[in-house]
Amino acid sequence: MNLRDLLSHYAEHVTESKEFELNEDFNKRLDDGDIEGYELILRKPDGEEQPILPISAALFVSDLPTYRQLVKDDIAIKRHEILMLDEFPTNDGAYDKLLNLVRQRATVIPFVGAGFSVSAGCPAWSDYIVGLAIRSGFDEGDVKTRLKVGQHEQLINEVITRLGISVFQRDFSTQFENGRISPSLSPSLELKDLFDGCYITTNFDRVLEKCHAEKRPFEEKVVGRDSTGRFLKAIYRSDKYLLKLHGNIDEQRDRILTQAEYNLGYGNEGIDYALSIPNTLKRVFSSFTVLFVGCSLISDRYLTVLKEAHDAAPEFLPEHFAIMVAPNDTDERNERDRYMADLGITPIWFPDGEWDKPAEILKLLKLER
User: Fold this and answer.
1) d(Cα 236, Cα 256) in Å, to the nearest integer?
2) d(CA 166, CA 96)
């Protein structure tokens, strides 16, 4: 064997080894007997039979085509279960579109909302606002109704007016930045091996940053009101930047939280595209696929920017995706689906309360890419 053949053989062996490692979950279940009906037997000349263990490694080395077919069949079953195709048949096509983009290594920008911080120990943002509103003297039923119809911005502004911004900041730090927060429990951890470019978040907590801190941290964090264009340049350079769209809770100059701050960031009457946040978002939404995760997608001014970008040139806008909660009521779900279509977003649904599903869907993407 000459040197070229030797190097080619080595490269093939390394690639196959990585393939085996990627199927760690399948290998374990096959070896543990959880995938029933498969065993490898060594029959000795005297007729004695002895099982060959572990099955996964032996099959991988001795009969790779059969091993790959078993993996393929297993993934098909897993896909059906994880995507809940009996309940959400449209998930199959939506997931396939996103998977193809991942396989092509197309630019996909994760847009991470507060829902991805809950499993890490942070309060759900809506629940947190409800609690503060009740504490401030608001009626609980009225508050929940207002949130359901998308009055987040107005309600938060009223709560802050009653509490005072200093109290709001102090209590936020207590609830979202305490020692009980465990970023390793967040589904954001599954994003980092799928998407290694730029990210956007509206979160004030730092769960997303900490999830990426060990392997490949963000090279730079840029606030939404930054006017240098660094974030857009980073996307084209394939750098890894984080756009903290609404800044940080304790930095008033760049923060977007109160209604006055929203007006400064997005415009007083309608969206002002001369401002940095709308200008950046419009260019991102118009040029790159965005994957919304942990976002309620009910009401925020960034959705107005997306809607206007979509209305201006729907045929040229890249397709966007969202892994999102499906309303239990069929009519309400259909209404949400129409709203997503008007924004140019294709949803991958999961049931309310099954908060492990987003992480499972992201793991499935990693398995199939």
Assistant:
1) 26
2) 47
pLDDT at 10: 43
> Cα–chain-centroid distance for residue 296?
12
DSSP characters over 177-244:
SSTT--GGGSTHHHHTTT--S-EEE--SSSHHHHHTTTTS--SEEEETT--S-HHHHHHHHT--EEEE
Q: How far apart are CA 222 and CA 209, in angstroms?
A: 12
Q: Is the peptide bond before 123 cis (omega within 30 degrees of 0)?
A: no
pTM score, two decimals? 0.87
Which amino acid, 104?
Q
- In CATH, the number for domain 91-121+184-368 is 3.40.50.1220
The answer to whether the CB of 186 falls within 8 A of the CB of 119 is yes
In 10 A of CB 47, how many CB atoms? 6
Q: Dihedrals φ, ψ of 348, to 5°? A: -115, 110
pLDDT in tens, 48-68: 888 888 888 888 888 889 899
| CA-derived radius of gyration, the chain | 24
Contact call for residues 118 and 124 (beta carbons, < 8 A): yes
Rounded Cα distance between 165 and 258, Å, is 9
Q: In what order do the strands lie in the sheet with 345-351?
A: 220-223, 241-244, 199-201, 108-112, 289-293, 320-326, 345-351
In the chain, where the domains are located: 19-82, 91-121+184-368, 123-180
Closest CA to 306 of 328, 330, 288: 288
The pLDDT tens digits for 279-304 are 999 999 999 999 999 999 998 999 99
